[in-house]
Every structure is written in C-alpha cells, then in structure tokens.
Amino acid sequence: MLPNIGGPHLAPLALSISSEYQSCVDAGAMSADVFFENIATVGLYDHIACSMQVFISSTKSSVVTAPICAPTMLKSCVDAFAAGYLGRVQQELQMFQDAQGGGSQSVVDGGIFSRDSCCYGHGPRRRPS
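and the corresponding structure tokens:
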C-alpha cells in the first residue's frame, strides 16, 4: 500500500510489490514529489528518466559497497522504484479526475480518450465532427 504522501488529500494506493521493497517504492514516490514541485520547469519523461538513472546508479553502488541485497535483486528494486513513482503520479491524477467530476473520459488532442479504448487496444476515439 502506497501511503498518503504530501498530505491527507491523497488516497492510499495498493501496489503489487513485495513489502521487502518498500524502501524502493518510497524512493520512487519521493522522486515523483520532486517532479511535482518542479513541474513548471521539467518534463515528466525527462524527470523519470533521470530519476531512474540516479536510482539505478546508487543502488548498484550500494550493492558493491554494502551488499545488503544481491545484484540479482536489482531489477526488482528498479521495478519497485518505478511502481512508487508512477503510483504517486496516479494518486495525483486520481485527485485531479475526482476534482473534475470523476468521469472516465478526457479530451486529448481534440479527441476523446477513454480507459476502454486504451486498455483494449482500440485506439483513441474521436468525437464526431
């Protein structure tokens, strides 16, 4: 369970990550918080890419200097970091969606993007002209 981060306005989010990797999840969530603090000056793609690189480098270094986890666990650590980062982003998006009335569709590039079209590979639906 990803705890409320940044205040009680965020709903908890269940993640399918072992509790053994909770510190990695927390690191990802904190990194996403930094993104939200700097959202006007940095793009999400750039921030997550840099954050992942820093996390991977520091995790690899810690495996060498203080082997608290096996190098084979690196992928699981990175996956947990990504889950924490994206889980935190999802919390914010859910809060935004709830504030907008909770609809499951949003306008994207003049069209309608729905969860159904995304999840089932039908592509974005367009509004009739």
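(Above: one complete record from the training split.) Residues 111 and 126 are 4 Å apart (CA to CA).
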